[in-house]
Structures are given as structure tokens and as C-alpha cells.
Specification:
Two copies of one chain form a homodimer. Chain A is an alpha/beta fold. Chain A contains 16 helices and eleven strands. The longest helix of chain A has 22 residues, at 336-357. At the A-B interface, helix 2, helix 3, helix 5, helix 10 and helix 12 of A face helix 2, helix 3, helix 5, helix 10 and helix 12 of B.
Chain lengths: 362, 362
């Protein structure tokens, strides 16, 4: 089948899923529901890019149905990838995007004029008291945002509620001691009932932001979390996201923003996942660019970023970014405080350098 | 990095996500949490297969956390695929698998001794009354299971509640008329709050089974639907599932069964997705095989199966199967009843053939 015919088949597959002759018997179906191929062009190495318009009505403006129209059955063709989408303003208004976004995260963390620093309490297997001790060290070093590792669930050896309480207390203790109140971000994970209960507990206990993995929970659950449940910013973690055959610029840069992520962690070029630089630049640009009136999301570059790569990352992403350095801060036993301080210093200096050079990212 | 080193890195990535030296400082972490590489072997064309054991404790027996341990961050390596997993009995007991399964679907549909027939009311764009009219035709032809198309959501031109009520009434009407009570299966789609409300409505209205797309909703939401909310069998639709880089035998044959799907629709060899025959056989075998005490799920072969391919499909999959023929039944205007009857007849005859030859599938 040639590219035009394939595109036409996908336009049907994603809407009416019947032979064209069946769809065309009903005028409403033919004109208001059926997808329409707008353009097919070569994309090198034998691949083609098809642009297909789907009627908004087909999506019912529902967060789950939208995914079905975008890449539901078409995902079952092993050679088809979903590389971009361009939702109309009405769909963006219906889904709403970030409620706090980049600006909200700056406000809640108190960081105005530079890139933000972030690390994680881990590894999985430590007790709440041990994780809180790690948090205390990071907070004393002046790190802005200290999140749970995404692998911290509700384990018998580290129950969710005990951990959240211990970490919030530790952050407050250091705030009394040093005047720097680190933003501790608990990880929410489980079935919807459990996730919403964890959110309620965390907010009641005083958490000022939370984290979740939208591609583990399912994007519709993440949407309900952001738009209907949370009253604090939500940071998206990429766990399980690579399992999806979406282009990363689309998934991290657009879909997660549209669904409501106030900050989006992605795996950057400097790290163990080897994302190409142009992909990283496109993700960050998509998260921050003006887009149908949606608030900007804060790009969070992680995925194995090391202390040594921080200055270059700030120069690359600009000030409106958060840098996530995890395991690298814990490399030397007894040296965690020192390495954390070096991280904070490096981001501060690199951000100041940007301002001096006038190279402030959008 | 060689295959052994990659496997070791993945074993860490999926559990502690810190350098080995950090993990090994804590005895509990090193012995009770850290993944362990059991075997690495070549798999042809330069690929390797690594078998990694993860401590059950890391999963917290939670449906979301399990996915994170299985393929969370590792999914972000573009060259890593998750091809199989072997959960211990305790994890299977915790997740529970199908509550009705193959046997329950036989009971609710009243089909004892042959393959089952299935079709969908569609296309999207028809009104509840028009879909109910389609259903009436299919039911009169004697089709066993008539499900919503997975693209039927809660559209303004076809509201969920009105559609479910109309289709249930139509099925009942035909039952009074012919004695054959087709099983109408509404599609649930949306955010968790909406999906659970749709379920409640459908059950109260008399639906005896429901359908959902686990890879649109998210597997943890699907688990809660099956295990905590539904009191009728749940059929899984594959929409969005191809977006996942899981091997299909694993995703359709094992993960969906473990999470609770009583029947699993997959795209078969005879259809527009071109799934290889050995993959189809492996999916069906995984769904039906004895497995850690879990109930068997009913395999549902679909994805563009045509009337003409039905006999071969019954011979291939055996009796403990449901065949899903969709758009093909609607090809000839005015001929829907006839083609539906031919479908029912073909499945009955092919099933009888199997019994005569003694070639009954497990």
C-alpha cells in the first residue's frame, strides 16, 4: 500500500473504523467524524509524514478519548509513530494544561532569577528516618527542590505517610536552622483510589508540590490528578514513558503540558540515556513556548546528569529550567553535603553568567 | 558497554537508581532491594536477552509500582524491550487476575461448547437509536457478544447513558422475540471518576459485562476497575497498546490477564495489522494456560478479521476463543443481517468440525 493509502486508512482507523463505503453512507459520519488526510510527504529513508485532521467532535474533549483518536488503534501498526499534534484552542481550554506551571513553581520554591536545583531522596530500601537524614543534608546545602525517588511507593519498610511526615519535618527543621526552606516533593503512585488518598494526606501534612509518573498511572488519571484533585503543583516523572512510541518532543513537550504537568522531568543529553541535544532543546522549547494560552511548564533535565555537567546544562537550557542531579551527589560517603553545595554553587554561578551575557532563555 | 554491563545497569536502574557503590553501603538495600542479573545470552542479530531477578519487596505488590520495577526507567533506553516476566505466586495472588475469566464469559453469554461470536456497534457518529438498530440486526442474526466500538465515548451526539440504555433495551427486545439474548458490552472511557461512574450506571441499567482500553486508561486504573469496582466481567480492548514497547505475548497474554481482564481483544494474523501467527498462538496460549492459580482469560481475535477468514481462525485458535468481526459485517447495505447470520453459522460449523476431529484447544 502506498503512503497516501496508508494515511487514508489511518484517518478511518482512528475515527470510524469501518470501510469507507460504510462510513460514507451516513452524511453526519462522513462530514463530522471521519478523519481527513491533509498532506503526505516523504521524510527520508523511505518513511513518510502524513498530516491528518480529526474532527474535534470525535474526541468528546475527553482526556482518554483524545489519546484514542490520536494514536489508539494506529499504534498497533508496528511501523507507525505519532510525531506531533496541533490541538485547537478549544481543546486546550478543555484540557486546561498547567494550573501553576513554571511561574507557580518559581513562586512556591522562592527562586526568582536563576535555574533551579533538584535532587532525589533515595535509594529505595532506606527507612523514612534515613531518607529524612538525606533530605536534611541536601537542604542544608541549599538545594531548592528535593523530590522522592519515583521508586518510593508505599513499602512496608518505608510507608508513604511516615516518609512524607518525616521529610516535611526535616525540611522545616533545616528552614528554622538556616532560613532555606527546601521544597520537598512526595511521589504519588498506585491505583487512582490510592493516589488520590496519598495526595490528600500529603497536602494535609503540608506538602507544597507533589510528583507522579503519568505514563505509569495513565494520562487520564494524571489529568484528573492535576485538574480535579491537586491544589499544589504537580511534577511529572518520565518513568515508563519510553515504553511509548511517541516522539519525545511531543510526549514530554506537549502532551504532558496539555494534561497539566507544572514541571516535566525528562532524560537529557548529559546522562545515561543519550537523548540527542536537538531533542532536548525541542522538549524545553515546547514546554515554555506560548501555546494556545496554556501556562508554561518548567523543564527539568535529569536522567543521570552529573555535577560536572551542570554549568554546561544551564548554558544550554537557560534560566527557566530545573536541573536534577541524583545519585551523583551521593557518590562519596561523607561527601554528600560538599557535593550538594558544589551543585548549588555551580547552578548559581552559571545562571549569573547567563544574565551577564544577556543570554537568558525564553 | 557490553551486554553484561548493560544488564547490571538495568538491574540497578529499576530498583535503587544510584551507582552500585552507593547501594552497597546499605546492607538492606544491597540484599533486599537491588535487582540481580541471573543470565545474559545472545539472541541473534547482535541483540542479547538478559534475565534479571527483582525482589518482590521492591514492587510493594502495587499495580503501578510493579510496572515501574518491570519497565519504568529502563523503557527510556531506546534499544531495550521488555519481552517477558515471571511473577511469583504471591504477586499473582496480590494482583488476582481475572475474576470471571473465560469460564465466567461462557456463563454470562450462555455459550458452552463452541467458539464465541462478537461484533461491534459502530461507526462513531451514529445516534443511540441508530446504534441500537444495528445491535438489533446483529442480535437477530444470533451473534453472542455485541460490544461498543472503543471509539464510543460520551459524545454530545451519542451520550453514554442514552446509548447504553437503548442498546440494552434492543437486546432485550430481540431476546423476547427470538429467545436469543445477546450480551451487549458498553465501552467505558475517560478519567477514573468518569469511568467508575459509567460502570455504576451500566451495571444498574443491567449490563452483564463491560469493556475498557487498559492502555488508554492506564493499567493501574484498569486494575482498580476490575478488582475493586466491577461486579461483571471486563473485556480489554487493545487501543493504544501498540504504543508500548512490550512484546505482544507479554502485554496481551500475561500483563492484561494478571491485571484482571476476563477477555482480551488482540489484533490477529488475519486482518490489517499483520500480527505473525506464532505471536497470535503465544498470546492465546498465555491467556489460557494454567498460571499460578489465575483464572484463564478468553482470547478475542479481532483487528480486521473478515467473514471469509472465520473458519480458519476457529481451526487455529480452537473453541475457547471469541472471534470479533467488525466492519466486514456492514459491508453491504441491507445485507448486514445476512452477513451476520453467515458469521454465526461459520463459527458454529467450524467449532463442530473441531469437536468431530477431537482437535479441541486447551
Amino acid at each position: 500500500m502506498d503512503a497516501e493509502a496508508r494515511a487514508e486508512a489511518i484517518a478511518r482507523e482512528q475515527t470510524v473504523e469501518v470501510p469507507r463505503v460504510v462510513a460514507e453512507r451516513e452524511p453526519f459520519v462522513a462530514h463530522q467524524i471521519l478523519g481527513r488526510v491533509e498532506r503526505v510527504s516523504g521524510a527520508g529513508s523511505g518513511a513518510s509524514v502524513a498530516t491528518i485532521a480529526y474532527p474535534l467532535a470525535a474526541t468528546a474533549c475527553d482526556p482518554a478519548q483524545l489519546l484514542g483518536v490520536l494514536f489508539g488503534n494506529a499504534s498497533l501498526y508496528p511501523d507507525v509513530e505519532c510525531v506531533d499534534f496541533d490541538p485547537p484552542a478549544s481543546l486546550c481550554q478543555a484540557l486546561r494544561g498547567p494550573r501553576f506551571g513554571l511561574a507557580g513553581l518559581r513562586e512556591v520554591s522562592g527562586v526568582r532569577d536563576r535555574a533551579l536545583t533538584c535532587t532525589a531522596v533515595k535509594p529505595l530500601g532506606l527507612s523514612p528516618a534515613e531518607l529524612a537524614a538525606r533530605l536534611r543534608t541536601f537542604a542544608r546545602a541549599g538545594i531548592d527542590v528535593i523530590k522522592d525517588d519515583q521508586g518510593l511507593a508505599d513499602h512496608s519498610f518505608c510507608p508513604f505517610e511516615e516518609r512524607v511526615r518525616a521529610c516535611l519535618e526535616a525540611a522545616e527543621e533545616v528552614a528554622q536552622e538556616t532560613g532555606h526552606r527546601a521544597l520537598y516533593v512526595p511521589n504519588l503512585i498506585g491505583t487512582p483510589g490510592r493516589v488520590f488518598a496519598q495526595l490528600r494526606f500529603a497536602e494535609d501534612a503540608g506538602a507544597r508540590a507533589v510528583m507522579a509518573s503519568p505514563l505509569l498511572l495513565g494520562l487520564p488519571t494524571f489529568w484528573e490528578l492535576c485538574q480535579r484533585r491537586a491544589s499544589v503543583p504537580v511534577i511529572a516523572h518520565p518513568s515508563h514513558a519510553g515504553a511509548l512510541r511517541y516522539a519525545p518532543e511531543l510526549l514530554f513537550g506537549k502532551l504532558l503540558r496539555l494534561y497539566g504537568a507544572d514541571a516535566v522531568i525528562f532524560v537529557g543529553f548529559a546522562g545515561r540515556f543519550g537523548t540527542p541535544r536537538e531533542t532536548c532543546a525541542a522538549i524545553a522549547a515546547n514546554l515554555r513556548a506560548p501555546w494556545r494560552g496554556l501556562a508554561a511548564s518548567l523543564p527539568v533535565a535529569g536522567g543521570g546528569l552529573e555535577l560536572e555537567g551542570v554549568a554546561e546544562a544551564v548554558a544550554f537550557y537557560g534560566r527557566d529550567t530545573m536541573l536534577l542531579v541524583g545519585g551523583s551527589l551521593q557518590l562519596e560517603e561523607g561527601g554528600i553535603l560538599e557535593r550538594s553545595r558544589a551543585f548549588v554553587r555551580a547552578v548559581g554561578e552559571a545562571s549569573a553568567g547567563l544574565v551577564r551575557e544577556g543570554a537568558v532563555a525564553p
